[in-house]
């Protein structure tokens, strides 16, 4: 890695130059980060210790919550420290690590959301086959396949990125190290690699989007045959999930489908927030507030802790 670049460190961008705005940005990010950790940790706790939530849906929800805590930790704490201290330098090794982890967690997040859509489809459209199709062994295998394939996917992109030569500016116009910002700094020919990124993003994100869309088309067509009260329960759970997936996918595609040109607009820094910070923040809110069993389990945990403190 060191032999392929003349740059020894990179400089990340802040959302603002003034100290007061940087402080406000840091406090906002820190608040979102703490709420995200607390919400996801609460879901992990209740889905682990409540025997009533020992089902495939909550198995994947627990995995998603653990993933979200890791995902948001890759970018937010470092961005807060950079804003508060004004020192936005990051080493090449640190940048490579961040690139790998962001790609890895984004990939696995997308696959987990797709698997959860499949779980919902089987539960509603094929209830008699649900125990066999979504057995514990099958759930574990799908989880391991997601995690291992993510390692390969992220490893390939990280390796390709840091084989490039960086001999121009070392200022990354983003609050974290991302592949596209690094490509803009390279003096190597990046056209073939950019096409690879574009192709892989369309295949992975597009494939997951098509699978999720088809799953929900079948779900909604089946649910319309249910009584009105049951329809409301299903829609109240599915619609927020669709919104999170839509925000996640649309923000990724908006970033990666843009032409590879240097840009300094604030929009280029805000868009990645919608696939790095917003989904981990919204997932626990959606799955706890829209799920009666999770809400009851959360109340039990809170009441148990309250009486133990007394």
UniProtKB/TrEMBL annotation:
Keywords, sorted A to Z: Cell membrane, G-protein coupled receptor, Membrane, Olfaction, Receptor, Sensory transduction, Transducer, Transmembrane, Transmembrane helix
UniProt keyword Cytoplasm present: no
Domain (G-protein coupled receptors family 1 profile): residue spans on this chain: 39-287
Places the protein is found: Cell membrane
Keyword Membrane (UniProt): yes
Membrane topology, as annotated: Multi-pass membrane protein
Xref: CDD domains: 7tmA_OR14-like
Domain of life: Eukaryota
Membrane spanning residue stretches: 23-47, 89-117, 138-156, 193-217, 238-257, 269-289
Classification via Pfam families: 7tm_4 (PF13853)
Purpose: Putative odorant or sperm cell receptor.
PANTHER family with a match to the protein in the record: OLFACTORY RECEPTOR
Protein name, entry field: Olfactory receptor 14C36-like
Source organism: Vicugna pacos (Alpaca)
Gene name, Swiss-Prot/TrEMBL: LOC107035213
